[in-house]
Amino acid sequence: MEDDSVSLGNGLFIDELCKLRVLNPEIATRTQQLNGECKEFVDKINEFQRIVGGFISMVSDLATQVENEKMKAIGCRNLLKSIAKERETKRQQLLALITEKKMQLERLNTQYESLLKVEADQNEFIEQFIMQK
């Protein structure tokens, strides 16, 4: 950058438009450029913060959904465990009932055989009685 300003001394300058300046016009121009660049930088930082904020919000929502699904999965697992326990209890009850019914059948079969023997004895007695008359 070419400096077209004239120094008058004591910190006074005349710029290319013949205006009296307290600050060297080249420094003033550079300061304005730096100010513009700083403004761009701040805008970019704000945009970055907006994007990061959106990302954090999205990740937070996703984490909430994952946690909800995790809780559902734990609930389903516990439900399956309780169903399995219920099924095992029901199985044990049915096995006990089967054992009880088998014992009852055995007892009834024994009683039936005993009654058949009594009937046979009574029929034989009746036949002998009839024959004696």
TrEMBL record:
Localization per Swiss-Prot or TrEMBL: Cell projection, Cilium
Pfam families xref list: IFT20
An annotated GO BP: protein localization to cilium
InterPro entries xrefs: FT20 (IPR028172)
Tree of life domain: Eukaryota
Any coiled-coil regions, as ranges: 91-118
Subcellular location, principal: other
One GO cellular component term: cytoplasm
UniProt entry keywords in alphabetical sequence: Cell projection, Coiled coil
Full protein name: Intraflagellar transport protein 20 homolog
